[in-house]
Description:
- The protein is of the alpha+beta class.
- Helix content is 38%, strand content 20%.
- The longest helix has 23 residues, at 495-517.
Amino acid sequence: xxxxxxxxxxxxxxxxxxxxQKYLTQTVGAPLKLTNAPxxxxxxxxxxxxxxxxxxxxxxxxxxxxHARGQSLNDWVDLCDGTVDTFPDGVIYPSNEExxxxxxxxxxxxxxxxxxxxGGSSVVGHLTPPGAGPPTLSVDxxxxxxxxxxxxxxxxxxxxxxxxxxxxEGHLKKQGFVLGHFPQSWEYSTLGGWIVTRSVGQQxxxxxxxxxxxxxxxxxxxxxxxxxxxxxxSAAGPDLRHIILGSEARLGILTRATMxxxxxxxxxxxYAAFFPNFDIGAKALRxxxxxxxxxxxxxxxxxxxxxxxxxxxxxxxxxxxxxxxLKLFGQGDERCMLIYxxxxxxxxxxxxxxxxxHLVRKHxxxxxxxxxGEAWIEKRFLTPYLRNTLWDLGYALDTxxxxxxxxxxxxxxxxxxxxxxxxxxxxxxxxxxxxHISHVYTNGASLYITYLYRRAHDPHHTLDRWKRLKGAASQxxxxxxxxxxxxxxxxxxxxxYLAKEKGPLGMRIIENIIKDLDPNQVMxxxxxxxxxx
Length: 533
Ligand SMILES: Cc1cc2nc3c(=O)[nH]c(=O)nc-3n(C[C@H](O)[C@H](O)[C@H](O)COP(=O)(O)OP(=O)(O)OC[C@H]3O[C@@H](n4cnc5c(N)ncnc54)[C@H](O)[C@@H]3O)c2cc1C
């Protein structure tokens, strides 16, 4: 069963070894002993529903609490510390397009705010019901999880939009295919959520982001159904599919999508390499990206992330032995770990691996073919559970991301990291900050930054610390000319920074599309952008 307080299912835990706990105490300070607010307290806060009656709507406190938030740090404080104060007035699980159409009519008639709910894995406040205004209905798409068609001739598959990562790949695998979209939230996040937030999977270097995988779809908008042409490519004016990608539920509910699929790869391997420092590693990565090698993933950790990964592995003896070995080969304390993936047929993988090894060595790097790559792939969907354990220990952990051109990667990273590192200095609090380059392009790369700080006794204080850190880092991102989000979307948390990226005319175009398709503002009000009355 899915946790209400924290990430994932209640049966899975990620243990933080004692050595790692010591490391955190040394770097950030000893944590306070804190406990989560009891669930009864949260359930007791759910007010009476304001929704007019409608068949199938659940108004019990547990259903409404379960759909009240996503996974942003703000959401965590609300649900774990008990500060949650807005709830959907009801939850409904439609089973088909017809039901969704009727629901939208009901919302139009009674001026209800609809929030589609996929996997609930949003990390930027997409799902928070507004405090004031019309009642909110959470529309959980969990029942719309079927494969509708698989066309082997065209390498396409059509799914209902509420299908989760494991359900989707489960269907495809049986028939020898793969979509290959693996965000770290894959266990719960859904196809509809990926499309409307422009999600990026870990192996996007091979499979592509969600945008090129999305062929066509069906959107139920407040003013009627919208279908997109189903053609391999087209030059017939602007591509209207792009108004769905990143629409964050402001334009309607995506009910189904046709996706480009591939044959299952013959072989998939993950390995590691090390570079003496981040500067050298980033230069090597740029050259690798621009050589356009046949790889599926490239992920370069900075020295602190490399060290933290070692500490969290719980393999003290192995780590100490490995560090000695790495030092002998010139990979000292500033070492940076690269994890890379090979996805394809044996022959192509072999060539790509050889080409990569050549470039790694050219940049003073060292290939490591055992353990690390395998350990990474084995734990890739388990790692998010670490956030639960750290929270229980007394630490808040959050991540943020951007993309920058190659020439700004190092300066940009330093600027964001130092804003975070000194963000709580006025309180005498330390912040552990580490980063990696997570997706590479020929013209730049995305940076993924993790920061960890101590929770405070007062949840508002924990939240205030997050607001200050997130604000300073976001400001540094836009000052450097980076995007406010490479993959997580805008929601509420990135909304203040959107205008800087789109410009006044760009904002007007987005506003006008929303006003056109949703004139009465019944779709996910206040997310992405805030409209006047
Ligand atoms: C541990 C963790 C790891 C993550 N890793 C990644 C990652 O690697 N890459 C990445 O890109 N993101 C990542 N994310 C962010 C998140 O998983 C993505 O934004 C994801 O696409 C959200 O999908 P979801 O189904 O959970 O959507 P939800 O969180 O349920 O909803 C997100 C938004 O989409 C809307 N929505 C959902 N379904 C529909 C629909 N059918 N029609 C219209 N609107 C809809 C919702 O109303 C909301 O506005 C991660 C999050 C977590 C918690």
